[in-house]
Amino acid sequence: MGNKPSFGETNLPCPQPRQFPMLLWLLLLLILAPGRDQSGVTPKAFLLLNPPWSTNFHKDKVTLTCSDSLSPAQGDIYWYYNENLLNKKSEEIQIDKTGYYKCKTQRSSLSDPIHVDFSSDKLILQAPHPVFEGDDVVLRCQAREKAKEISLYRNKTLIQSDFTLKSVSRNNDTYHCTALIQGFLWTWRKEISKHLTIQVQELFPPPMLIASPSSPIEGSPVTLKCETWLPPQRSHIQLQFCFFREDKALQKCWSSSPELTLPTVWSEDAESYWCQAESVTPSIRKRSLRSQLYVQRIPVSDVTLEIQPPEGQLIEGENLILICSVAKGTGTVTFSWHREGTVRSLGTKTQRSLSAVLQILTVKESDAGRYYCAADNIHGPILSKLIRVTLRIPVSRPVFTLTSPRMQAMVGDVVELHCESQRGSPPILYRFYHDNVTLGSSSVPSGRAGFKFSLTAEHSGNYSCEADNSLGVQRSDRVILSVTERLSTTRTPSYSPREFKEPSRTSNTNPQEPPDPVEPQPVYNNVNPGDSDLVYSQIWSIQHTKENSANSPRKHWEDKEPTVIYSDLKKVYPDDSTGQASIGDSDLEDAIENYENVPCILSALDR
């Protein structure tokens, strides 16, 4: 396949060597001559014959008139006979020689040549001039003498007797006629004319497709023009046009306008274009050569990335919108989005626009980082600057802990409260509550917050904490604290079912020996917790003085502070004087009240 001509190129045939000097002179003359039309092509001059026959008898006189589309002709007229310039400058000349004639004016190019024949034959076939494609032509068979039985032949075949040809075309058909011509002594003899080729001129030349601009920028409009022209003798004929890209029509055929505007052209539209022109009456159709449309593509530049919300500040769970834009660039642009440190792109979009949007739904902590985008329209990707995206994470539900120095908190104990959220953007404000009353607050950049205080009897109740980093408040579970009051040390004179007797105290006559030890006296306070089957006695053991402690038989009491001793006593039957009988499930309803004021220390010693 040969190369397709581009818009604006013209295929000129090479001149014959013998014609080159004349053509060069004519070309120079055409360049200097005025009268070019808007397309840059100078219209041709044309010849008129009077009488209008291209074949005549010898010694007939024929008048030639040179004209152009701006007739009457102005200035000098140039005449040529068999390629020779004649020394005649007038608009009309008379001829009587057989040969080729043509002319031009200062505002036109050379006319098509016409062959005029002056014959000495007795029978000639005449065709009018000018004849254009699609014309109906009437031929005339002429004899010098009287003639009869005249017949017309085309390519040696008898065709008709009325000598009228319908819608002639430019071909190599030849015509001749025959007739019986009266001779000497009224005799008739058959004569045959010379063969005639009708000089059929183009009704209009094949159109030329012209693009304006010839190399449009991608995305801009372009106007296609199907350019041809009618000779002045046929200027009344109506033409219609149709435009094609490859083999597909660009519009509904046919249109009376020789122009078609494409609103936008793209690089993929850089294909071959052509057009057709057709005369309405007669129906003559011609097409242009295919021409390649070259579309200029502007590379992308100034690629920028925009993030919404602005400044890249997002809350975990929100949607992240990435907008990639280019300041310049034409055609189809491929946009891609990337996070620094990752190989695969987050997404790509290919479209004819200067910007594209990517949305990342429900961002999480791992989506934080630096982002950039790239744009490419075949010339190579151009990258934007990096933009940091940070995420603010709402606080998680905090964990509340209460630390006490003993299992059962008592008045005067110092307790410590702690509150911590495992997740959440700093700083975090922690608030501590006692029965929904604020105890205090603390703001920390990370980790947990603490709060200490000394217990009083009023501090029993529900405790909790809150975490707040302005993205939402989360509250912990509640912790119940029960504060017990401390009991005073007193002697309680009472009796118990088991008789408690103090050991006899004898005086020591030896002043050097220590006095007899004094037994600790049990002090107790019975506690019956609700419906329990157990009775707890809180016992305070009383320590004897240091003077008597030297000879004390119970060394484990020496130098000790008062100690609380708990003793549990099961409910017993009335006849169980020892208090050792166990209570079975069937006997619970018959159980009697528990013993009161039992010296638990002695009970423990007895056991």
Keywords:
six-stranded mixed sheet; five-stranded mixed sheet; Immunoglobulin-like; rod-shaped; disordered N terminus; 4% helix; 3 helices; mainly beta; single chain; 607 residues
Secondary structure: elements and pairs:
Layout: H1 20-32, E1 46-50, E2 55-57, E3 62-67, E4 78-81, E5 84-85, E6 92-95, E7 99-104, E8 114-119, E9 123-126, E10 131-132, E11 137-138, E12 140-143, E13 147-154, E14 157-160, E15 164-165, E16 175-182, E17 188-192, E18 200-201, E19 208-212, E20 222-227, E21 239-245, E22 248-249, E23 259-262, E24 272-279, E25 285-287, E26 291-292, E27 301-308, E28 313-315, E29 320-328, E30 333-339, E31 347-351, E32 355-360, E33 369-376, E34 382-383, E35 387-392, E36 399-403, E37 414-420, E38 428-434, E39 437-444, E40 449-454, E41 461-468, E42 473-475, E43 479-481, E44 522-527, E45 534-541, H2 546-549, E46 564-570, H3 600-606
Parallel strand pairs: 2-8, 10-18, 28-35
Antiparallel strand pairs: 1-3, 3-6, 4-5, 4-7, 7-8, 9-12, 11-15, 13-14, 13-16, 16-17, 19-20, 20-23, 21-22, 21-24, 24-25, 24-26, 27-29, 29-32, 30-31, 30-33, 33-34, 33-35, 36-37, 37-40, 38-39, 38-41, 41-42, 41-43, 44-45, 45-46
